[in-house]
Every structure is written in C-alpha cells, then in structure tokens.
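Appendix C: a fully annotated inverse folding record. The material below is reproduced so that readers can follow the format used throughout the book. The structure is listed first as tokens, followed by the designed sequence.
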C-alpha cells in the first residue's frame, strides 16, 4: 500500500508542481492572515509570513544543518538556508520537484560546494526510510507533508532518529478536529475521504494524537497549537486564483489529477468552515 501511495503522490506532484509554481510561485503551503484570519495581504507575502510566524512560535533562532521533509520545489528550504546561513537538505517523492528545486538553488547561488554555507541540496527520498545517518540535523522542518505519510508514528520516529541531541523539530500538518468529546460523524468521515482521494492522502489524525505519538517517542519540550483561523482564508484566495484564464489554460495541460484537485478546492474551504479540518503545529526537541 505504501509503495502504491508513494507512486500516486509522486505522479500528483510531478504533474501539478509546474502549474503551482507558474500560478503561485515557489511556496507550496498555506499563508498566514493574522491570528484572527482578518489581515489582508498579497498571497505570496502571506506564505512568507507563515514561515516567519512559525519560526517565531517555535523560537528557532539558529540552525546549521536543516532538513526540510516534503520540500516541494524548495521554497522553504532555500528560504531557511539563506535566513540561517545553513546547509539545508530537502527531500521529496517527486523527481520533477527535486530537479526543479536543484535548479532554483543553482539560480539563487545556493548550490552545494565543499562545506560551504549557505547551501541547499535536494533528493528523492521516502520520509519513512530516510537515507541519513542518526543525529544528522539540528533542525527538522516539515510543513504540510505529514498528511501524506501512511504511518504517522513511523514518520515521527524517523525524524527523531535523524535529529541531533538537542536538535529542534517543527512539524506543521493538516489534522481533523479532536475527537475526545465526540467521535467523527459519518458525514465528517465522508468529507475527509473525499479530501483523501483528491489530494492523495492516506488519512489524517487529530493534533492531540500527534502530541501523544511525540511523547511516546521521547521528544522533549513538546508544544502544540491550532492555527486554523489564521490560515483558513488561504483557500478563498486559492479558489479566486484558480479561475483566472492563465490558470484554467494551465490546468488543461496538467492532467486529470490536477484538474480534479482544482475542482475540489471547496472541500478544504468547507472543511475549515465547519471546524473539521485543522492546521496543527507541533514542536519538540531531542
């Protein structure tokens, strides 16, 4: 199942990443619209603001060796490498994304050279079986890739393994609402399954479940937060941008999977509106 899912994820991003970059730029993640979600701002600025707000929330002031898990075309990886003058590595399942990210690093003057920093390198790798030695990174960043992981515990375990003692882990992912007081209804389950099918997700869990996993793996100084309100307006902006002539033209050449995802943007929008979809943050140290 994992192999088949990985192939689907690879094909989805191989097909859609070019159109996303053309329409949205290098950052393939939510934007930040203020704690109450009411700030009006240009969409790419909102995405940069999300990175900065996350770093502030986690109190990340320095990093030398960074891993970006689920790096896309390298937007966050390059940003973090430059910000911290660090050596950054990004991994993705998509060869198209890895190649484009490598090209962007070269264009930005961040291609890796002998022990030089800042630099960024990219490779195709499975986050559940990372090709890195134990204790390789002092900061691991995972922004909106955890929802793709077929085994959430194994993913967190791998991040813990490759993190250096004293290293910091910042994990941001799509979740469903907590279920401690009320289980998911049949209608909510159906809504989630529709999202899973369109965006190649195996399943999502609640933020309290992630926190319990992190504690069982001996992460320290664990903190969590729900930023759903701050990022929910992102989907309104995405929907508006998807109906421009340029985007529609691009969709026609990007394959059925990308078209289906574009036609289903309202699933995420409505998921936030009904409180089902949550934008969860988890921080921990080793």
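Designed amino acids, in order:
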């Amino acid at each position: 199942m994992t192999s088949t899912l990985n192939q689907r994820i690879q094909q989805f991003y191989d097909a859609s990443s070019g159109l996303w970059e053309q329409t949205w730029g290098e950052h393939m993640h939510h934007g930040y619209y203020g704690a109450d979600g009411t700030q009006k701002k240009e969409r790419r600025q909102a995405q940069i603001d999300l990175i900065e707000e996350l770093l502030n929330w986690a109190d990340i002031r320095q990093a030398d060796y960074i891993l970006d898990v689920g790096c896309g075309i390298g937007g966050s990886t390059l940003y973090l490498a430059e910000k911290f003058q660090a050596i950054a590595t990004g991994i993705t399942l998509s060869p198209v994304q890895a190649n484009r990210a490598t090209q962007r690093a070269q264009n930005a003057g961040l291609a890796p050279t002998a022990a030089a920093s800042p630099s960024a390198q990219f490779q195709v790798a499975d986050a559940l079986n990372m090709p890195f030695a134990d204790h390789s990174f002092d900061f691991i960043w995972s922004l909106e890739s955890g929802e793709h992981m077929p085994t959430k515990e194994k993913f967190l375990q791998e991040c813990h393994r490759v993190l250096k003692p004293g290293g910091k882990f910042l994990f941001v992912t799509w979740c469903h609402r907590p279920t401690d007081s009320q289980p998911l209804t049949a209608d909510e389950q159906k809504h989630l399954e529709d999202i899973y099918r369109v965006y190649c997700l195996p399943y999502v869990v609640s933020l309290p479940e992630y926190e319990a996993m992190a504690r069982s793996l001996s992460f320290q100084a664990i903190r969590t937060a729900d930023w759903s309100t701050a990022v929910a307006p992102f989907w309104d902006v995405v929907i508006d941008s998807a109906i421009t002539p340029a985007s529609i033209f691009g969709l026609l050449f990007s394959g059925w999977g990308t078209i289906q995802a574009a036609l289903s943007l309202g699933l995420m929008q409505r998921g936030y509106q009904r409180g089902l979809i949550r934008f969860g943050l988890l921080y921990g140290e080793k």
